[in-house]
Design brief:
This protein has 299 residues and is of the alpha/beta class. The chain has helices at 13-23, 57-73, 90-100, 142-157, 173-181, 194-206, 235-241, 262-274; strands at 3-12, 29-33, 45-52, 82-89, 104-106, 110-113, 126-129, 163-167, 186-191, 212-216, 226-232, 249-261, 277-285, 288-295. Helix 4 (142-157) packs parallel to helix 5. The radius of gyration is 19 Å and the shape is globular. The N and C termini lie far apart (50 Å).
């Protein structure tokens, strides 16, 4: 059984999202604890809990220091900061999900439910049976809900999509959503984290989705063009992917970009406009935003 290092970074609530975004690419999982979570923090405080390989701890802590310095420079409240570390077993992290992940309605027509809380779905709704393990994506986070909301809007206007890419698929939840909305489509669920692809494959099989291939891969390694790309990833990664994205989209293809803090939306839009995209739709929830962009027809 794998042993991880659990790092808890407690800081002012205003800085927590910056810290989480900084450490997420280095970890096997990130959790935010504040006054509204079952495992809570004090008022005005948030605890960012991250799992990493023990040999990556120094890199993760350096990323925390850089995020804190950037937050202070921008005038964001940060201090005091408390950092604690301890060893944690993989099954312990998995069990944390069971304390707060329950059957939940997401979007207009989806119910997401874990194996430990089957719940009752409203007749006519799409049911997604999902055990997230250590991969991101349960429908509980606003970035996932916003991506699903935009996908449902696209379905109303484009019921004929045939090829879909779920980039950074995590748990596979967006692949399952796409398979329900476009049952005729074929798709690819890709993630550069092998742990995520294992989890996604299990969840696709659990939901009897055979139309999506699961692959441990990055965008640059993929071939072909897609009618829709869904990417619920950090803003800095989405920015880096902008030059590669047009080559992966069919004429008038659409891309959903989520995982964005509100202040990151406009800068990212500017990057994607330069890459040949125009804004099709936007959705916001709390501090988070997501956009649907259309590829401008070209070569």
């Amino acid at each position: 059984m794998q042993v991880w290092l659990e790092v808890q970074i407690e800081t002012h609530a205003d800085a927590a999202d910056l810290v989480a975004a900084a450490v997420a690419p280095l970890t096997g999982g990130v959790e935010l604890r504040d006054t509204e979570t079952l495992l809570s923090a004090a008022a005005g405080r948030t605890c960012v809990v991250a799992l990493c390989q023990p040999d990556r701890a120094r890199t993760l802590l350096d990323a925390v220091d850089e995020a804190m310095a950037a937050a202070r420079a921008a005038g964001t409240a940060v201090d005091p900061v408390t950092i604690r570390t301890r060893e944690a077993h993989e099954d312990e992290w998995r069990d944390v999900w069971k304390q707060f992940f329950r059957a939940t309605r997401v979007g207009r027509r989806f119910t997401v439910r874990p194996s430990w809380d089957a719940g009752e779905a409203t007749p006519g709704e799409f049911v997604i049976d999902l055990d997230p393990g250590m991969a991101f994506g349960t429908g509980a986070h606003p970035s996932t809900r916003l991506a699903i909301e935009l996908a449902e809007e696209i379905r109303e206007a484009r019921p004929d999509l045939n090829h879909v890419l779920d980039l950074g698929c995590g748990s596979g939840i967006l692949s399952i959503v796409a398979a329900r909305l476009w049952p005729q489509a074929s798709g690819l669920a890709a993630d550069n984290d092998p742990q995520a692809t294992i989890c996604a494959k299990e969840n696709l099989e659990r939901n009897h989705v055979g139309s999506f291939e699961v692959r441990a891969s990055m965008l640059a390694e993929l071939a072909g063009r897609f009618d829709l790309v869904m990417a619920n990833i950090q803003a800095d990664v989405l920015t880096q992917l902008a030059p590669e994205m047009p080559a992966r989209l069919a004429q008038n293809g659409l891309v959903i970009l989520s995982g964005l803090l509100l202040e990151q939306v406009e800068p990212l839009l500017a990057v994607y406009r330069d890459a040949g995209f125009t804004l099709n739709a936007r959705a916001d929830e709390g501090d988070w935003g997501a956009v649907c962009l259309r590829r401008i027809p070209g070569p």
